[in-house]
Write a structure and sequence with these properties.
Helix content is 5%, strand content 59%. It is mainly beta and 537 residues long.
Length: 537
């Protein structure tokens, strides 16, 4: 029983290996015109081989004027004769040659008329696949694009081909097969597909520099063929955007703005489109349009004011003032009087805010000053926070008023600074600050400014002897020339004269040289070169 099972298993294995090793054959059908009184037919098929190769001959007998069977692809010679009812054969027909061709390839990937998305801008790697063709020794692959820019031809052993091809194009690909005897497939398999490119990038819409809007502009990303453009206006009553105009398949990168449209808040929306690439997301830009006179003369006047205009919201300032400072100090308490000059400077940082909807703004500043004398460096700080009020004067001028609290420190030198035996002390006070500036615009980029500031030290923060402050006033006067490098950056340079002064009551007693009513006082005077910069956020 076990021997029988083993024999059966061996036969199954042998048969499987024979089937797998068997050459590919395909079904072939013949029909011919029936011969009168013929009861049967004999068919002789002979392979046509190259010299030196074995050629097989096959003989078949059929009763009908037709034959079908499986043959390996190749060249054959066929002869035919009939037999009557007695079995007597007739004469063989003249040999006729025919070919058994290879089957047509079945294309697998890409599928028929499929649109394939990619994330590539220029080219992508693509693997073409088709079902193996029985009896084929090689495949002839052809890929062409509709625009004729891509033409790829390859002879391959395997039923697949990987290649880099340009995106954003329609393609046709063809596969035919052949064997070593020169037998080809019955027909060429043909497939078509579309390869899409990466979505186009968003255009960058330029915000109009002023509310005198004449034209809307945007950048043109690569591969863009057209735009859909929408112009919207904000309805303040309904608090929503209303579509005014639509431009489909717009070709230009600029759009003239209709000057007959009323002033208000607008928005332009642009969708970039491309052939065989997905459209970009919507790009949006809001802008304001001036109400009233928008004539070229009114626009020029507004343009000239740009050199001094500050209506962009938050902004930062930075400046450095450098000079030779003149220091004077009187301290009756210690019978000291000091006066000398030293190289010094002041660094300043600030942040402010202005709005086009209100004349009021804000400006906060911190200063750090210092000077070096006889090998010693004295530093002293100040800070101020101001409300700012602006008012236009004529077409080109503007006046600004500042008011707010301030904090200021000053050094006090007691003794002989020339011998190095002096004592360094500090005074600090607080009080109100008042300032005024006049700005005048010369051109859209050039402007001038004159300013005056008063600082009143009324409240003691600290004094070396703890005595109360004596009210004193510090002053600053100056002028600046401004140049607007970009809509967000303005540079200024000019002159400033500052006099910082503080005094406090001198303490009397056995350890003091002061008399009743004496005050200790420090004064620093400087004529500064002022370098100033302003950035809008």
């Amino acid at each position: 029983m076990k021997l029988g099972s083993a024999f059966i298993l061996l036969m199954i294995s042998f048969w499987t290996s024979m089937v797998l090793a068997a050459p590919y054959r395909r079904l072939v059908n013949f029909e011919w015109e029936a011969i009168e009184n013929a009861k049967s037919y004999e068919i002789e098929l002979k392979q046509v081989k190259a010299k030196g190769e074995d050629a097989k001959t096959f003989t078949f007998k059929v009763t009908e004027a037709a034959w079908n069977g499986r043959l390996t692809p190749g060249k054959y010679m066929m002869k035919l004769r009939s037999r009557d009812y007695r079995g007597v054969p007739g004469d063989w027909s003249e040999p006729s040659e025919f070919n058994v061709g290879l089957e047509t390839a079945v294309l697998k990937f890409p599928g028929a008329r499929v649109k394939m998305a990619t994330k590539e801008t220029d080219t992508t790697s693509l693997e073409f696949k088709w079902a193996p063709v029985g009896g084929a020794d090689q495949y002839h692959f052809v890929l062409t694009s509709d625009d004729g820019k891509t033409q790829i031809t390859e002879t391959l052993k395997d039923p697949s081909f990987k290649v880099k091809v340009p995106v954003a194009s329609h393609y046709t690909w063809k596969v035919s097969s052949s064997n070593s005897e020169g037998i080809t497939s019955d027909a060429t398999a043909v497939g078509q597909f579309t390869l899409l490119g990466k979505p186009v990038e968003n255009p960058r819409i330029e915000k109009p520099e002023s509310d005198f809007v004449r034209e809307l502009k945007w950048t043109r990303p690569d591969h863009v063929s057209s735009y859909d453009v929408y112009l919207l206006k904000y309805n303040t009553a309904d608090k929503k955007w209303e579509k005014l105009k639509v431009y489909e398949n717009y070709q230009q990168d600029t759009l003239p703005f209709d000057e007959s449209l009323p002033g208000g808040k607008y928005q332009v929306v642009v969708r970039a489109k491309s052939d065989l690439r997905p459209s970009a997301p919507l790009a949006k830009q809001s802008f304001s349009v001036r109400s009233g006179d928008r004539s070229p003369a009114a626009e020029y006047t507004a343009l000239v004011r740009k050199s001094i205009d500050r209506v962009t919201g938050w902004y930062a300032v930075a400046s450095y003032l450098i000079t030779e400072m003149s220091y004077q100090g009187v301290n009756p308490e210690k019978n000291s009087s000091v006066g000398y000059k030293a190289l010094g400077g002041t660094g300043r940082l600030g942040v402010g805010w202005f709005s086009p909807h209100t004349p009021w703004g804000f400006l906060g500043i911190i200063d750090m000053s210092g000077f070096t004398f006889n090998g010693k460096t004295q530093t002293f700080a100040s800070a101020e926070a101001n409300a700012v009020y602006r008012r236009a004067l004529g077409d080109r001028g503007e006046v600004r008023f500042q008011a707010g609290p301030y904090y200021k420190e000053l050094p006090e030198t007691v003794g002989d600074p020339f011998s190095g035996s002096s004592e360094d002390l500090k005074i600090s006070s607080a009080g109100p600050h008042f300032g005024a500036e006049y700005w005048y615009s010369l051109t859209p980029k050039l402007g001038i400014q004159v300013n005056a500031h008063l600082y009143m030290s009324l409240m003691k923060i600290s004094t070396p002897n703890g005595e109360p402050m004596e009210p004193k006033m510090s002053t600053q006067f100056g002028f600046l020339g401004s140049y607007r490098f970009t809509p967000r950056f303005t540079g200024l340079i000019g002159y400033a004269m500052r006099e910082d002064k503080m005094s406090y009551k001198a303490k009397t007693g056995t350890d003091s040289f002061a008399s009743d009513g004496d005050v200790n006082e420090s004064t620093i005077i400087g004529n500064y070169l002022n370098v100033f910069a302003e950035w809008s956020f």
